[in-house]
Fold this sequence. Notes:
By secondary structure, the protein is an all-alpha fold.
Amino acid sequence: MRRRVSAMSARRAGSLTGDMTQSSRSGRFVLGAATVATGLIAGAFYVFACAVMPGLARSDDRVYVSVMRDINEVIQNPVFFLSFLGAPALTAVAAWQARGSRHRWWVWAALAASALAFLVTVVFNVPLNDDLARDGHPGALRDEFEDPWVAWNVVRALLLTVALGLLVKATGSRAARID
Protein backbone atom coordinates (compact mmCIF):
# COMPACT_ATOMS: atom_id res chain seq x y z
CA MET A 1 0.00 0.00 0.00
CA ARG A 2 1.38 3.38 -1.01
CA ARG A 3 1.56 6.20 1.56
CA ARG A 4 -0.15 9.46 0.74
CA VAL A 5 1.95 12.53 1.33
CA SER A 6 0.09 15.56 2.56
CA ALA A 7 0.92 19.01 1.20
CA MET A 8 1.57 20.03 4.79
CA SER A 9 3.94 17.18 5.60
CA ALA A 10 7.24 18.00 7.27
CA ARG A 11 9.03 17.58 3.97
CA ARG A 12 6.96 20.19 2.14
CA ALA A 13 6.25 22.54 5.06
CA GLY A 14 9.81 23.80 5.12
CA SER A 15 9.64 24.68 1.44
CA LEU A 16 6.30 26.46 1.78
CA THR A 17 7.32 28.27 4.93
CA GLY A 18 10.65 29.22 3.41
CA ASP A 19 8.93 30.73 0.37
CA MET A 20 6.56 32.76 2.55
CA THR A 21 9.37 33.94 4.79
CA GLN A 22 11.44 34.98 1.78
CA SER A 23 8.48 36.87 0.33
CA SER A 24 7.82 38.51 3.69
CA ARG A 25 11.46 39.57 3.99
CA SER A 26 11.42 40.95 0.47
CA GLY A 27 8.23 42.89 1.22
CA ARG A 28 9.73 44.36 4.38
CA PHE A 29 12.91 45.31 2.55
CA VAL A 30 11.10 47.00 -0.35
CA LEU A 31 8.72 48.87 1.97
CA GLY A 32 11.67 50.01 4.09
CA ALA A 33 13.67 51.07 1.02
CA ALA A 34 10.65 53.00 -0.33
CA THR A 35 10.31 54.74 3.02
CA VAL A 36 13.99 55.74 3.13
CA ALA A 37 14.08 56.92 -0.50
CA THR A 38 10.89 58.94 -0.03
CA GLY A 39 12.32 60.48 3.13
CA LEU A 40 15.48 61.50 1.33
CA ILE A 41 13.61 63.23 -1.49
CA ALA A 42 11.05 64.83 0.85
CA GLY A 43 14.00 66.13 2.88
CA ALA A 44 15.74 67.52 -0.19
CA PHE A 45 12.64 69.45 -1.25
CA TYR A 46 12.07 70.55 2.37
CA VAL A 47 15.60 71.98 2.56
CA PHE A 48 14.98 73.90 -0.66
CA ALA A 49 11.74 75.30 0.80
CA CYS A 50 13.19 76.21 4.21
CA ALA A 51 16.75 77.25 3.46
CA VAL A 52 18.03 77.23 -0.12
CA MET A 53 15.34 79.36 -1.74
CA PRO A 54 14.95 81.83 1.16
CA GLY A 55 18.75 82.20 1.18
CA LEU A 56 18.87 82.78 -2.56
CA ALA A 57 16.01 85.27 -2.30
CA ARG A 58 18.46 87.60 -0.54
CA SER A 59 20.83 87.67 -3.52
CA ASP A 60 20.78 89.87 -6.58
CA ASP A 61 19.30 88.62 -9.85
CA ARG A 62 22.60 87.65 -11.48
CA VAL A 63 23.72 85.58 -8.47
CA TYR A 64 20.27 84.04 -8.07
CA VAL A 65 20.10 82.85 -11.69
CA SER A 66 23.72 81.69 -11.71
CA VAL A 67 23.39 79.66 -8.50
CA MET A 68 20.07 78.09 -9.52
CA ARG A 69 21.56 77.11 -12.88
CA ASP A 70 24.50 75.51 -11.07
CA ILE A 71 22.17 73.65 -8.69
CA ASN A 72 20.01 72.44 -11.58
CA GLU A 73 23.11 71.14 -13.31
CA VAL A 74 24.79 69.37 -10.38
CA ILE A 75 21.61 67.82 -8.97
CA GLN A 76 21.39 65.71 -12.11
CA ASN A 77 23.63 62.97 -10.79
CA PRO A 78 23.25 59.21 -10.19
CA VAL A 79 22.90 59.52 -6.41
CA PHE A 80 20.02 61.99 -6.63
CA PHE A 81 18.32 60.12 -9.48
CA LEU A 82 18.57 56.83 -7.59
CA SER A 83 16.42 58.19 -4.78
CA PHE A 84 14.29 60.54 -6.91
CA LEU A 85 13.28 57.77 -9.31
CA GLY A 86 13.67 55.01 -6.74
CA ALA A 87 11.14 56.46 -4.28
CA PRO A 88 8.08 56.15 -6.54
CA ALA A 89 9.35 52.94 -8.16
CA LEU A 90 9.98 51.23 -4.81
CA THR A 91 6.65 52.51 -3.50
CA ALA A 92 4.92 51.00 -6.55
CA VAL A 93 6.62 47.65 -5.92
CA ALA A 94 5.72 47.84 -2.23
CA ALA A 95 2.09 48.59 -3.17
CA TRP A 96 2.03 45.58 -5.47
CA GLN A 97 3.57 43.37 -2.76
CA ALA A 98 1.07 44.67 -0.18
CA ARG A 99 -2.03 43.67 -2.12
CA GLY A 100 -4.31 41.65 0.09
CA SER A 101 -2.65 42.83 3.30
CA ARG A 102 -4.07 45.14 5.93
CA HIS A 103 -1.44 47.81 5.38
CA ARG A 104 -2.04 48.03 1.60
CA TRP A 105 -4.20 51.17 1.81
CA TRP A 106 -1.39 53.12 3.45
CA VAL A 107 1.04 52.05 0.75
CA TRP A 108 -1.39 52.77 -2.08
CA ALA A 109 -2.12 56.22 -0.63
CA ALA A 110 1.65 56.84 -0.38
CA LEU A 111 2.03 55.78 -4.00
CA ALA A 112 -0.66 58.27 -5.05
CA ALA A 113 1.05 61.12 -3.15
CA SER A 114 4.45 60.12 -4.51
CA ALA A 115 3.13 59.94 -8.07
CA LEU A 116 1.55 63.38 -7.71
CA ALA A 117 4.85 64.81 -6.43
CA PHE A 118 6.67 63.24 -9.37
CA LEU A 119 4.07 64.70 -11.75
CA VAL A 120 4.45 68.18 -10.19
CA THR A 121 8.21 67.94 -10.67
CA VAL A 122 7.98 66.85 -14.31
CA VAL A 123 5.15 69.19 -15.33
CA PHE A 124 6.12 72.34 -13.40
CA ASN A 125 9.58 72.40 -11.77
CA VAL A 126 11.62 70.85 -14.58
CA PRO A 127 10.18 73.13 -17.31
CA LEU A 128 10.84 76.14 -15.06
CA ASN A 129 14.43 74.91 -14.63
CA ASP A 130 14.74 74.56 -18.41
CA ASP A 131 13.38 78.09 -18.92
CA LEU A 132 15.90 79.45 -16.43
CA ALA A 133 18.73 77.85 -18.43
CA ARG A 134 17.95 79.87 -21.56
CA ASP A 135 19.64 83.15 -22.41
CA GLY A 136 18.05 86.31 -21.11
CA HIS A 137 18.26 89.15 -18.65
CA PRO A 138 18.75 87.73 -15.12
CA GLY A 139 15.99 89.97 -13.71
CA ALA A 140 13.43 88.82 -16.27
CA LEU A 141 14.45 85.17 -15.92
CA ARG A 142 14.17 85.38 -12.14
CA ASP A 143 10.77 87.08 -12.30
CA GLU A 144 9.39 84.24 -14.43
CA PHE A 145 11.04 81.51 -12.34
CA GLU A 146 11.16 82.29 -8.64
CA ASP A 147 7.57 82.49 -7.39
CA PRO A 148 6.11 79.57 -9.37
CA TRP A 149 9.13 77.32 -8.74
CA VAL A 150 9.06 77.99 -4.99
CA ALA A 151 5.28 77.38 -4.85
CA TRP A 152 5.47 74.09 -6.76
CA ASN A 153 8.45 73.00 -4.69
CA VAL A 154 6.37 73.48 -1.53
CA VAL A 155 3.58 71.40 -3.09
CA ARG A 156 5.91 68.51 -3.91
CA ALA A 157 7.62 68.75 -0.50
CA LEU A 158 4.22 68.51 1.20
CA LEU A 159 3.11 65.61 -1.02
CA LEU A 160 6.29 63.67 -0.31
CA THR A 161 6.07 64.40 3.40
CA VAL A 162 2.55 62.97 3.35
CA ALA A 163 3.84 59.96 1.36
CA LEU A 164 6.58 59.46 3.92
CA GLY A 165 4.11 59.57 6.81
CA LEU A 166 1.87 57.05 5.04
CA LEU A 167 4.81 54.70 4.41
CA VAL A 168 5.87 54.97 8.06
CA LYS A 169 2.29 54.11 9.04
CA ALA A 170 2.34 51.15 6.63
CA THR A 171 5.64 49.98 8.08
CA GLY A 172 4.22 50.14 11.60
CA SER A 173 0.96 48.47 10.57
CA ARG A 174 2.87 45.73 8.82
CA ALA A 175 5.13 45.15 11.83
CA ALA A 176 2.18 45.07 14.24
CA ARG A 177 0.33 42.33 12.40
CA ILE A 178 0.91 38.71 13.18
CA ASP A 179 2.51 36.87 10.25
